[in-house]
Design a protein that fits this description.
CATH architecture of the largest domain: Roll
Strand order of the largest sheet: 4-3-2-1-9-8-7
Structural class: alpha+beta
Order of helices and strands: EEEEEEEEEHHHEEEE
Shape: globular
Radius of gyration: 20 Å
Distance between the termini: 38 Å
Number of helices: 3
CATH superfamily of the largest domain: Pleckstrin-homology domain (PH domain)/Phosphotyrosine-binding domain (PTB)
Amino acid sequence: MANAKFKLQPNESIIMKSEGITHNNNNIAGELVLTNLNLIHVVPKGFLRTTYATEYYPINQIKVFNGKASVILGQLGKLEIYFINGSKAFSFYNPKEAKRMAASINELLTGEKGEFDSGSSAIPGTEFIAETLKGTVDTFKNVFGGRGKTKSSDQSDANSGHVTGKCTSCGAPTSGIRGQIVRCIYCNSDQQL
C-alpha cells in the first residue's frame, strides 16, 4: 500500500508502519502508522480499492496506568488499545509486528524501552478497581454491623492515586488520577498527571 494517502502535521514524524492490519472484525487489510502524535489507520475502499479511508487516533488519548500504556497484546497478533473514550482492536498478520507496535506505543507514551510484557491479559487498571471495590465492601460491612476494617479518609486519598498539580502551559490548577491525561480548562492544553 505504498500509495496510501494520509496527512502528517508539520511537527509529526513516522515511528513505525505495519501493513496487512485489520480493524475489529473488518476483513479488509490496511496499514497502521504510528507517529509521535497519532496512530493512523489507512484502509483501501471502493470497488477498485483506489481510494482510502483514513482514521486518526491521537496518541495522547491512550490511557497510561502505573507507568504502562493501556495496550493488551492478545493471541494470534491481536492488539487492543484503550483510549480515554473507548478502545480499538487491530489484528496483525505477523504477531511479532503486533508486539513491536505495542512496545513502540509504550515507549512513546512512557519513555520506557524494552520488551513489551504480554504475559498479562488483564485489563490495565483492574488492580486499582479491585482495591477500590474491596474498600467499598469493607465500608458497607462496617456500617451494617460486619467486621470490616475501616480506613481513615487520608489513607484512602493517598492510596487512590488522586493527585493535584499545575498546568505546564498556564500554571492553572489541575487534578485527577496519576497517569491520566487531563485537559486544562483555561488554555485547553493536554498533559499527563
